[in-house]
Every structure is written in structure tokens, then in C-alpha cells.
Amino acid sequence: MIDVEEARSRILAALRPVGQEIVPLALAYRRVLAVDVRARVAHPPADVSAMDGYAVRAADAVAGAQLRVIGEASAGHPFAGSLGPGEAVRLFTGSFVPAGGDAILIQENTVPVLGGIEVTETVAVARHIRKQGQDFALGDMLLAAGRRMTVRDIGLTAAANHPWVNVFQRPRVAILATGDEISLPGEMLGPGGIVNSNSTMLAAMVAAYGGEPFVLPAAGDDTDEIAAAADLARGADLLVTTGGASVGAHDLMHAGLGRQGFALDFWKIAMRPGKPLIFGRIGDMPVLALPGNPVAAYVCGVLYLGPALAVLAGQEVLRPVFETARLQGNLGPNDAREDYLRARLHWHDGGWVVEPFARQDSAMLTPLAASGALLRRPPFQPGLAEGDMVEIIRLDL
Amino acid sequence: MIDVEEARSRILAALRPVGQEIVPLALAYRRVLAVDVRARVAHPPADVSAMDGYAVRAADAVAGAQLRVIGEASAGHPFAGSLGPGEAVRLFTGSFVPAGGDAILIQENTVPVLGGIEVTETVAVARHIRKQGQDFALGDMLLAAGRRMTVRDIGLTAAANHPWVNVFQRPRVAILATGDEISLPGEMLGPGGIVNSNSTMLAAMVAAYGGEPFVLPAAGDDTDEIAAAADLARGADLLVTTGGASVGAHDLMHAGLGRQGFALDFWKIAMRPGKPLIFGRIGDMPVLALPGNPVAAYVCGVLYLGPALAVLAGQEVLRPVFETARLQGNLGPNDAREDYLRARLHWHDGGWVVEPFARQDSAMLTPLAASGALLRRPPFQPGLAEGDMVEIIRLDL
Predict the structure, then answer these.
(1) How far B208 CA lies from chain A's nearest CA (Å)?
(2) Looking at beta carbons, which residues of chain A come within 8 Å of B205?
(3) Which range, of A362-376, B240-254, B359-373, averages the lowest pLDDT?
(4) Chain A residues in contact with B353 (beta carbon < 8 A)
(5) Average pLDDT estimate for A264-273
(6) In this model, does residue A248 exceed pLDDT 70?
(7) Which CATH class is domain B323-394?
(8) Distance CA A83, CA A97 (A)
């Protein structure tokens, strides 16, 4: 058995980013940039007013002075001329500051007089002016390749005048469930049958992590069926299987995938749930064989599949983010396996409190659905008491 | 001016959930349930083995006893008969436990003997059996209407044998940018022109919050154009506009929307950025008029548009979640307006540290893109020093 960190490192080291594509900026949310975004314009494009008021020369705009208003510039309609001594130009928020102006006198600090305004409060140079390029200059590097785009990044890229962005393709992930006992949700269950929840759950997870899932027809517990199904996955950037990881079934899975030239990297991780995970490859295609218990499949998804999709999609390598929380309840000492307990999470008294469920069976989906976090226990961690600080991963999907 | 909490309450109180639709479970990630999900099967469907081994009667399976192996049950292939005294049935993980069996003797605790096995370790009743319905029973309430579905919920709903779910429709949100100066990303900029980053950013935000955005052609600073554009929004569940919120332009916006029968609820919020927000309705359609500065539009999006989309989509009403973090740097006293500072966020020494950017101009997108959080300052908060605990909203989009 290898440990969690080594397993993740070996999986990630075996992956290469997929190809690129151009997408409309409007559809780029959560896509990973393949090329840096640089500014195609300056922002603001010129010195602009941050307020409604008047462009003035600060030297003239002292309390009590009167200024002649020689024109107006609204947003999108710059004043064509320039501003001389004793003059002012009416402006609005977003108006370009005309040549010769070096400050904005806000409307509230003026009173109207014949042909112009009287200044009621002295203004300083540069006051209320957004300088050209104060946010970014033409050519500035704004966002680096490898970044997964946020809504804010889309705003920034739009402001930089890009209608398109060059991103990595969505990694194509084939999902294969195995087992004689499983049927799809809503289908008639056979004798001894159970619903296959893994395929639908993992497809949703792949999509949530930015991949393009395709679900293969399930394979029964039969070498030929597993081999045939694995063949349908060819061309995928990753094949994810579930089931067939118990002692007897493992041999079957190995034999079925082996028929397609499966090369094992490792089997078994010192963790709970998720011990019987298998990783290897068929030709160029990496294969991640997850346990059949849905909770184990989900936890392995968070710890391995998420980071794997990040690497395939060209994102900087990410480890799951561990935060800390106060323990509610008590826990006995841990054994040799790293443990990921399903747990409620709530904010109390200025911090997160984590409460592991009493039942941690890896087939139980109800406590998983009700969890806000996984509580991580390192191997051989001593017993823990109420209020102890523990490591958690918050579950956001 | 009203405060942030009152503004949010008034917006949310004015909204009603949209209609419902049926979607395939596989596409239900982040959709809001319109009807409770109840179990259509029990999980597990019968008593099943959690290990590879033998079904036995615990009373017989004492160390040293020999048991006759009368058959085998693999997952999906239950044993047809029942188990009598001194008998065992070979099982695998997921196999149904045959009638008469009340414990699982794991493979490791047996040695083969002629016609059967010898027990090497005594087993207790119910050991390694997952009881029928231990996760959920037929008819159990699993997920309540109003819940936004996670990947885990999809797994649970699949296990409960549902191929379809009844969800609220995605709220349709019309997005209208106004201003003579704006042009879409990639289009030629006019004199005094600036790129419209708001429409694309807000469309991405609406989609990220679970809505269906549609972007209207921009309206110039002209009453007729604004009225015509607002007319194109009819049928939307919400109209979001940007710009036209400065002093002069406000009148224009009000006049243009008023031409369509706009009824004002409130204008101006005691916050920064985002003061000139307008809320009201045109007939049945709520109208949220955001400031034109993209940072202000984004912050108002997080504080008002996100919760508004939750209510429109039938989700339980959500307030933004405030956490706490340690301040890096110092801040002077705050004025009468609730302040939302853009800030870097990093995990250090067991907790989050938040570092506000020096420049907080509401037109600057580069610090917004680099932010991990908004730091909330209540009105009249005294100055703060390094290490003080402050309230933050983490930015996940």
C-alpha cells in the first residue's frame, strides 16, 4: 500500500494537458487559459472623470474664483477643444478629461453664475481623475496561462477588449461501471440487483471539475465484457471505472483491462474509504479504477479525480485545500490508514465546527449528502477530544 | 439611502420562484429541487455482505468449527436456498446474505478443509453485514424541495432509483448595458469610447448562479433607446441593467424605464462600491439597475443578484456567508457607508489572512480579479490594526 500523497503524485505525474481551442469569452467561465491574456487597450483608455462636475485647471479652481464654462463632454462624447486659464468644461462620470484640464471640480462644490460657475471649495491637482491606464496599460499581462477563469477574470478580459479566449479543451472522461448486480436509475432491478449510482454521480463530478464525461454501458463481471467496454473508451483522456475492486473482482478487472494492454502503476492506497483504488494505463490512456462503494468513489474523486482533471485541463497542479475546524465529539485513535470522515460543518462562535457522523460505512450516501466537509485523520493519529483542531476539506460539490 | 440588509430584504421580498421542469438526473447538478426526493427502493435493497467471505450462522462459527460450503452467491447472483446449521455460503462484497445467515465470516479467518472451511476466529452476529435499508428505507425522505443539488445529492438520488428530477426552471435574466460610450469586446471603439465589460461579466455571473442570461443590445444615453431596450426584456424573470446610475444619467434611466411603466422601490444604498443601485419593477418584471463601474456591478452582483437568483430559482433564501479572517495591514476608520474592500486572501498559520488592496477604485478590474475575498466594514467601524479579526466573503466566482 502507498500513501495518499504518493498516490496523488504518481497519478498527476502520469498526466499531460489536452489540446487547446478558442471559445467565446462569454462561455469561458471556469475554462483554463492556454495563453496569457494581455491588454489590447488601456483601461481607462484616457484620463476620465470619476464624478459629475467640471474639468478645470487646479491652479484656477480656488474657493471664490469664477470659471467660464466653454462646453460639455459626456461619456462617449469627448470635448474637442482644449481648456484654457479660467475655463471649465462640464463633465459626467466617465467623460474624458479635455486637454488642459488637470482636476475635476465636483458639481456640489460649485454654484452657477452668469456664463459659468463659482468655485465654493478649492480643488487639488488630479482630484477625481482616473488616469489613463490606471487599471492596466496597453500590452500589460493580465491573466496567466493555466488559470481557471472566474467571473471577475471574464470582466477583466472583456475590459481588455477580447471577445475570444484560447483555452484548454475539456478533458474527455469515459466512465465505466462494472458488476453483474447494477442497473441504471429507473431501470428494472434484477434479483440481487442494486442501482448504479456511481456513473451518474461521477459524470456530474467530471462536469463540475471542468471535464466532458461520457458514460459507457456497464460491463458485467466478465473478462470479455470488461475488455469490450474498455475498448469503447479509446480516445478518452482518462478512463474512470468503478467496482471490481474487491479481492475476487480485482482479478477480473485486471484480466479484463489486461486484455486491452493495461499496465498497472499501483494498486491499494493506505486510506479509508478508497483503499482498493487502481491506477495504470492502456496505451496512452490513463485509467483510474475507483472502488464500487459510492462514498469511496466520491472521496477518491475529490482527492484524485479533481486534481487529475486540473492537470489534464492545463491548470497549475492543485492539491486539495485543507483548512482547520474545531471537533465536535470525540474520536478514538486512528490506525495505519489515512481516514476521511464524512462530517457536518457549521459556523459557530467565529469559526468552523466539524461533527463527524457516527456511521461511516462507505456505502451510505445519506450522511455523505448531508456532509459539509471531510475530516482528515493522518495515520496513527491519537484519539481526539471535543474542541481539538482538525484538518478538513470543505465539500463544494 | 437605505442599508445593505434592508436593500437585500426588499429585493428578495419582491421575488417569486419561477416555474418547474423535469430534467434528467445526470443534468441536475446545481439545479434546485422543486419536489422532495423520496426513496423508490431501499438501500441496501437486502442484507448484503460488506466483505469477501462466507455467510454463516454466528452460533456455528466459533473458532475451530468446520462448516460445509453449500453454494456461492456473488453480487447480482443471490443464493436461492437457505442456510442450515453447520453450513456456509461463499459470498463476495455486495452479495445478498442468504436466508438463515446472520453474520459474515471473512475469508482471512478461514482455512479450506474437505467439502468446506474451518473457522479460525469466532464471529459475532451481524458482523460485516450491511442491513437492508441501513442507508435509507423505501419511501424515506432524502432531499427536501428548495435544495440546490450537489454531486453527492445526485449520487443519493440515483441510488434511490430516480432517473429524473423535478426542479425549478433556470430564471431568465435579461442584461442591458447603457451608455453612449460603450462597445462590445472586440468591436471598434468610438472616440471617447470604452469597452463594455459588464454585460459579458454579468452573463457569466447569472449562469454561475444558476440563471439563464440573455444579453440585450446596449442602449445609448437616450430615453427612447432605453425604453425600447427594456421592452425587449419583457418575459424575463429579472431585468438587470448597468450604467445610467450617476446623477445625470439616473434621470435618463428613470425616464427611459418609466416609459415602460417602471415603478421605483428604492434608490441608493449606504454602501461602497454600489451606492447608486436602483430597484423596482416594470409590470411583473423586477428590475435591478446596477452601477456602471464594473467592480460596483460585481460587488452588487454578489450581494444582491446571487441571493435574488436563489429566490427566483426556488432555493431557500440565502444571505452571503460571512467568515472571519485576520487583517494584514491597517485601515482607518470607516464612514457612514458599509464598505466592501477587494482583498487578497491566503491561508497562513492555521487561519485565513486578508490583505486589502491599496487601491480600491471601483473601476479597477485588476485588483478585483486578484481578490480572494471582499472585506466587509460596517458603517462607522473604527480604525483597524494588523491582526484584527474582520468579516469576509470568500469569492468563489
Answers:
(1) 8
(2) 151
(3) B240-254
(4) none
(5) 95
(6) no
(7) mainly beta
(8) 10
Stated pTM of the model: 0.95
A21-40+140-168: CATH topology: Molybdopterin biosynthesis moea protein, domain 2 (3.90.105)
A99's grid cell: 486637454
Give the CATH H-level superfamily of domain A48-130: Molybdopterin biosynthesis moea protein, domain 3. (2.170.190.11)
Which ipTM score applies to this complex?
0.95
- Which chain B residues contact residue A52 at CB under 8 A? 246-248
Quick one: cell of A259?
486484455
CATH number for the region B22-43+138-168 comes to 3.90.105.10
| Digit-coded pLDDT (tens) for B266-319 | 999 999 999 989 999 999 999 999 999 999 999 999 999 999 999 999 998 667
- Residue of chain A with shortest Cα separation from B25: A200
What residue in A sits closest to B148 (Cα-Cα)? A397
Q: Residues with Cβ < 8 Å from B251, sequence gap 6 or more?
A: none
Provide the shortest C-alpha distance from residue A329 to chain B (in Å): 21
Query: Distance between CA atoms of B311 and B14, rounded to whole angstroms?
Result: 10
* B287 in Cβ contact with B14 (< 8 Å): no
Note whether B73 and B89 are within 8 A (CB).
yes
The residue among A23, A25, A40, A152 with the most chain B CBs within 10 A of its CB, best to mutate, is A152
* CATH classification for the domain delimited by B4-17+170-312, as one of 3.40.980.10, 1.10.3720.10, 3.40.50.2300, 3.90.105.10: 3.40.980.10
Report CB contact under 8 Å: B182, A107: no
